Amino acid sequence: MSLHDERSFFDAFDAALAGDDLALVPWLTPPAPGLAVYRNTIVSAAIDALAATFATIRLMTGEDWFRAAAGEFARAHPPIDPALVNYGADFPGWLASFPPAQDAHYLAGAARLDWLWWQSWSAADASLLDPAALSTLPAEGLASITLGLHPTLHLASFEASIPSLWLAHQSPLRGEAHQLADAPEQILFVRTGPHVQSHLVDPATFAFLESLQRREAVLAAAECALAADPECSLPHILTGAIALGLFTTINLIPDTPR
User: Fold this and answer.
1) Which of 4-8, 55-59, 138-142 has the highest mean pLDDT?
2) Residues with Cβ < 8 Å from 36, sequence gap 6 or more?
3) Can you give the pLDDT at residue 9?
4) Which of 174, 53, 203 lies closest to 120 in space, CA to CA?
5) How much is the pLDDT for 44?
6) Strand ranges (E), the chain
7) Torsion of Cα atoms, 113 then 117 then 122 then 125, to 10°
8) pLDDT greater than 50 at residue 6
9) What are the angstrom distances between the C-alpha of 71 and each of 21, 50, 213?
10) Count of other CB atoms within 10 angstroms of residue 250
11) Model pTM?
12) How many whole angstroms separate alpha carbon 143 and alpha carbon 222?
C-alpha cells in the first residue's frame, strides 16, 4: 500500500468511525460490526477525558447525568486529535443548547470556567518579570510599551455570579451555601507554580489585564481601567498583578508614533 493509499484508508477509517458506514467500501464490505468496538472505545475515552476536564460540572450534575451528557457530546463531536488533553473546547457551548440542561442555565458558564482552569493548568510555564524592572519605566514611555502576560493567564467575565458559584464548588461545601445572583463578576486563572490560582477580580483590574491581552500599551490599559472604574487605584492594580505573577516581559510596541 502506498503512502497515498494509507492516507486515504485512514481518512476513510475516521469517516467510518464517525458514522459513514460506506466510507470503507474500497477496503471492507458493509456491514462491519467490528467498527462498533472502535466507536465505543473512542466514545469511552472521550467521556473519561471530559470527566477529567469538567470536574465541577460532574459535581453539579452527578456522575450518571454527566456521563450520559458527555456520551451524547462525544458521539456528536468525536475527538480529532489522539491527544485528548485539548478535547472539549466546544463542550460548554454545546451544553448551553443541550435540552436536559435548559433548567440549569449556569452549567454552560461553569463548564467554560472548568475549561479555562484546564487550559491554565496545561499551558506552558514562563519566567516571571522582575518587579524592579517596572520601577525603572519612565512615565513618558508607557504609551510605547506593553507588558507580556503569563501564558497560563485566562480571564472570563459574566453577567451573573457564576464565578462565585464555581469557586464555591471547589470547597468541601460543594456550593450548597451559594445563591446565584444577577451580579456581574470577573475571574482570572493563572499557574505560576504547581497549582492553578482562581481569583475574582474587580472590573478595573479585569479591563487593565484584558487590554494587555490585546497587546495594547500600558497607558491604554490604564485608560481602560479608569473607564471601568474612575475611582480605581492603578498602583494597586499593578501591585496585585505582580503579586500574582502575571507579568513576564516588557515589550516595545512596534511602529509606535514618537
Assistant:
1) 55-59
2) none
3) 44
4) 53
5) 86
6) 145-149, 154-158, 185-190, 197-201, 247-252
7) 130
8) no
9) 20, 9, 35
10) 17
11) 0.82
12) 10
